[in-house]
Amino acid sequence: MACETRTTCPYCGVGCGVIATVDDAGSVSVRGDPEHPANFGRLCSKGSALAETLGDDGRALFPEVGGQRTSWNTTLDLIADRFSNTIAEHGPDSVAFYVSGQLLTEDYYVANKLMKGYIGSGNIDTNSRLCMASSVAGHRRAFGADTVPGTYEDLELADLVVLVGSNLAWCHPVLYQRLAAAKASRPAMKVIVIDPRRTATSDIADLHLSVSPDGDVALFNGLLTHLAETDRIDQSYVAANTTGFSEALLSASRLSMAELSEATGLSGMLIRQFFWLFAGTERVVTCYSQGVNQSASGSDKVNAIINCHLATGRIGRPGMGPFSLTGQPNAMGGREVGGLANMLAAHMEIENGDHRDRVRRFWSSPRIADRAGLKAVEMFDAVADGRIKALWIMSTNPVVSMPNADKVKAAIEACPFVVVSDMQKNTDTARLAHVVLPATGWGEKSGTVTNSERRISRQRPFLAAPGEARPDWWHITEVAKRMGFVDAFDYESPAEIFAEHSALSAFENDGLRDFDIGAFAAINQKQYEELAPFQWPRPAIGATKERFFADGRFYHPDGKARFVPVHAALQPVERAHGSFVLNTGRVRDHWHTMTRTGKSARLSTHLAEPFCEIHPLDAADQQIRDADLVKVSDDKGHFILVRALLTERQARGSIFVPMHWTDETASRARVDALVPPDVDPISGQPALKQARVSLARHAPAFHAFLVATERPRILPFEYWAIAKADGGYRLELAGDEPENGFEAWLNQALGLDEDIEIVRYRDMAAGDCRILALRGTRLMAAFFASRSPVAVSRQWAVDQMLIEHDDAKARSRLVAGRPGAGQPDKGAIVCSCFSVGAMEISHAVGQGCRSMDAIGQLLSAGTNCGSCRPEIRRIIDAQALLAAE
Ligand SMILES: Nc1nc2c(c(=O)[nH]1)N[C@H]1C(S)=C(S)[C@@H](COP(=O)(O)OP(=O)(O)OC[C@H]3O[C@@H](n4cnc5c(=O)[nH]c(N)nc54)[C@H](O)[C@@H]3O)O[C@H]1N2
Ligand SMILES: Nc1nc2c(c(=O)[nH]1)N[C@H]1C(S)=C(S)[C@@H](COP(=O)(O)OP(=O)(O)OC[C@H]3O[C@@H](n4cnc5c(=O)[nH]c(N)nc54)[C@H](O)[C@@H]3O)O[C@H]1N2
Ligand code: SF4
Ligand SMILES: [Mo]
């Protein structure tokens, strides 16, 4: 009998409900949960491919110390001893935890409790510092608490949705689909996208503002001024529910329209259109994400946006409000338990003596951190200079994701004692650790997560843990008990932790704190197992609320919201000649450092190597052609090597490089090595989207493409990038020919034996070299090298590993690197669910399929998860343009 489990997707903050089915043979399939209020059955490409990422390959299966397998008991004793001894000798601030918005709430709660309440230091910070800290700071300044007032439904009810620094179509795809569906059913609804790049999201936008990097504060200050000048301020709301309006308006009004144009890089006409739409529409939701948060002015951007909503009273009502989109599945839960170094559990404040006393009394703990701990960037600085001597990293990969990543790497290497808890054994960070603790992952662990709309959902296990992997909460509580805190960490299950967390949220609350889920303070195991998704608050007594601030009451002591006066830089920072702004972010089908999505061949078809998007005119200036390799460097000698992708969707003067590639997946593409550790002074969040770099074409002796059934053991090339493919791997390579030639290298790298038949072709004059390795009728490897970027169809070559090659003709086609007649080249994969390529879609459009539905009927593309629909639309539109010319 197949067994179904309701759980929650472990990727983005949309928090979709998933039904996982394990059949009799033990194989897993997933589908969207039609009853989950976040997604009503939909899943995006990453969610749909979850079952493909569950394999044991690369998993950490046993505790390891110094690379050697050990027992749990000795390992936990060792960690407890090292932490206790370090604290005894150097004080509580000599140790630190660096945790993650991908921990479950229960894991997070005990980590925070151990550090702040028992070790007595504030030194627990999280990758949410790189993600949500500016939103948290902005909310606290404006509302007196870190409250997200709205719900997803508000995006559907709004007449205008403004997306600031958010690539919703790729990063919150199911929410994007809800928005796209609402707009399709109500065409009067407008969408504005404010992003320097023309992203997949801007394809549904009525207006795309290609704002210059960090032009957002100027733009929203201009909007506030416009609202005041055109008499759109809700005076009675402002008077009754807020303070500080005139100061905010004064500081907003410093720029003339010409200066505003200069500061934002936008024409006066576009700016006015945006102002009119915002001013004239009552139901406005402004969503913001990393284009806002990850900036040296991130907190000010958040408040510049909130100021406009407060000034018009458009907050806390259906279809209105500022809406911070959370990135990770449990970014919100981490904030609830106080996982940031400057917060305390249950939305209390570490600077507040009463709050500290209350949390300490609730925990009956011997001490409580008496001040904020070190924020992520400061924390790794302290590791680097030896102030922190023992570090525990859980569920995050900072060697890849922190700014100044090479310094972070060196700091971890030099730290006397580093523990890493991860599911995977060979991440760039885990490889440097003294101790690796194997963690259970999605499908194996049990707990709760909170999504962007404050909805708490269960992650439920449906698989046995592999090897000796154990859940994170267990790692932490076992170490805590061994450090002497037996009673306080004596939990049997996540349900007990959740109950305590709920009780703390209600403890001496009396409606003074937004986060209250006291209704669950006495939850038992069975109720926890059955817990349906719910939105907070859920106080023990009194009503829950769908939206915060509907009554005009905020969490500052006087109950009023604050306008925050923010200043815009008059002009964008000057760029030196030949330098570019380095914008970084995400692609549709990969998740961060790819430790999980990288396991799925399907998810690797969309974009399979690290790249750099450049405007064609900028590229021409630098003599860079499409598909060249480029060297992107900072002024300190750090550089990466990535593929050039020329696109007019990129604004001039700025390039875009994704954050996903690591030392596991490419030779030199960790983009954070180039990002300096500049932070927002209020939130401490790094400015990850505005580094300064220069660009140069890189001309290697040869370029090559390889498909192989095995992962090559040696890669002696200056450039390589590897991705999973159906039946094996696909690699892009470039550099010099290895000393003994390509064939000798292939033999050695793939361990080819005598049974292998080698077919070769070499044209010295043209610089072409092709090598096939076959075992019987099966292709083991196909290698294509050339002096210029290799033109072989990637998907076609990958497909050759799956079929028989029995006649000489098939082999000669293979060496030629060309599909035969009747085997058309699919082109780059657009729809990963059905493996449909761009050339197939173009061809179908040429045959008369002019709508998404027609394409779907013919090719199935876009009919499953829908993540590729913006790209299909783009192909249809591009063909229509061509036809019109
Ligand atoms: N596919 C996929 N989805 C994900 C993730 C993933 O790894 N992969 N990660 C999740 C996580 S943790 C997060 S935090 C979210 C992030 O979700 P998003 O914030 O939507 O994604 P990003 O690509 O980081 O950046 C968003 C946009 O900010 C723009 N931007 C850069 N500078 C500026 C600026 O100065 N002003 C403005 N207005 N815009 C600017 C960039 O061009 C980019 O398109 O995604 C979540 N979802
Ligand atoms: N340049 C640049 N840098 C960025 C960003 C950017 O936009 N640009 N975005 C930033 C943002 S918003 C974020 S959120 C970060 C994300 O950056 P990271 O958090 O470093 O990236 P992940 O790959 O998600 O790392 C999660 C790790 O946890 C492991 N893991 C998964 N599940 C579990 C579990 O249940 N338990 C344990 N113990 N381990 C688990 C995974 O294998 C993986 O190694 O990157 C930040 N860095
Ligand atoms: S939108 Fe996609 S990645 Fe995000 S929670 Fe839903 S299925 Fe998962
Ligand atoms: Mo994030």
Automatic annotation (TrEMBL):
Question: What cofactor is this protein dependent on?
Answer: [4Fe-4S] cluster; Mo-bis(molybdopterin guanine dinucleotide)
Write down what this protein is called: Nitrate reductase
- Record domain 4Fe-4S Mo/W bis-MGD-type: where: 2-58
- UniProt similarity note: Belongs to the prokaryotic molybdopterin-containing oxidoreductase family. NasA/NapA/NarB subfamily.
Which SUPFAM superfamilies does this one have? Answer: ADC-like, Formate dehydrogenase/DMSO reductase, domains 1-3
Q: Which species?
A: Rhizobium rhizophilum
Q: Keywords, A to Z? A: 4Fe-4S, Iron, Iron-sulfur, Metal-binding, Molybdenum, Nitrate assimilation, Oxidoreductase
Highest taxon of the lineage: Bacteria
Return any one Pfam family short name: Molybdopterin
